[in-house]
Amino acid sequence: AQTVTQSQPEMSVQEAETVTLSCTYDTSESDYYLFWYKQPPSRQMILVIRQEAYKQQNATENRFSVNFQKAAKSFSLKISDSQLGDAAMYFCAYRSDVNRDDKIIFGKGTRLHILP
Amino acid sequence: KAGVTQTPRYLIKTRGQQVTLSCSPISGHRSVSWYQQTPGQGLQFLFEYFSETQRNKGNFPGRFSGRQFSNSRSEMNVSTLELGDSALYLCASKVMGTGGHYGYTFGSGTRLTVV
Q1: Smallest Cα–Cα separation from A20: which of A64, A70, A69?
Q2: pLDDT(B80) > 80
């Protein structure tokens, strides 16, 4: 069974600085998607970034980028120029693309605090 | 486009009762998934519906059930509520984007408290 592990329950970063959130996963599959979701106090899960496993190039979305290391099964999220609005729970997630089912496996989350 | 709508936002029920939660996906989205979020267990997959058929089910007891209607709206039902069912219940709708890539849009959830 696939698992997703986020080893940092909480992190803090100074506004305008850069922070990296860690995520490792375990799978025997070769085709899958990885996601980072943000959950602010409003509770809605918001997609931050997505990475297809077959792509070697790391995904980027404005200030958000990932470091995808497929062999190491590592998928970290880097947030540059941190802003107060980035404060939230961040979840790393995995979705198999083998059976095409829509079961997303989430890590336990990292709570990110932005210090003004 | 309107987002994923979940109703109600908050619910308080007594042990032993049953509850029904509703999720309306984004117009045109035919796949709806449900997740339970608790502080202890995190986010766990409940089930997924596509075109009124359950395609996948997580490891939850039979007290948890769901269905999907022809307009893609979905409901989940929990019978004989237990204190441990207190959680945030999230639903997500999926759309196939360009290049065959999937996107998932989540609702704001229903916070269920069992007393």
Answers
A1: A64
A2: yes
Phi, psi of A84 (to 5 degrees): -55, -35
pLDDT in tens, A54-72: 888 999 999 999 999 999 9
pLDDT of residue A98: 76
Closest CA in chain B for residue A52: B101
**Amino acid sitting at position B53:** T
Q: What is the DSSP string of chain A?
A: --EEE---SEEEEETTS-EEE--EEE-S-S-EEEEEEEE-TT---EEEEEEETT--SPPEETTEEEEEETTTTEEEEEE-S--GGG-EEEEEEEEESSS----EEE---EEEEEE-
Say yes or no for a CB contact (<8 Å) between A45 and B92.
yes
CB contact under 8 A, B94 and A95: no
- Record: contact B90-A45, CB cut-off 8 A: yes
- In the structure encoding, which two tokens stand for residue B88, read together? 């945030």
Burial class (CB in 10 A: 0-12, 13-18, 19+), B62: exposed
Q: Which residues 63-92 of chain A have a CB within 8 Å of chain B?
A: 91
On whether the CB atoms of residues B22 and B12 are closer than 8 A, the answer is no
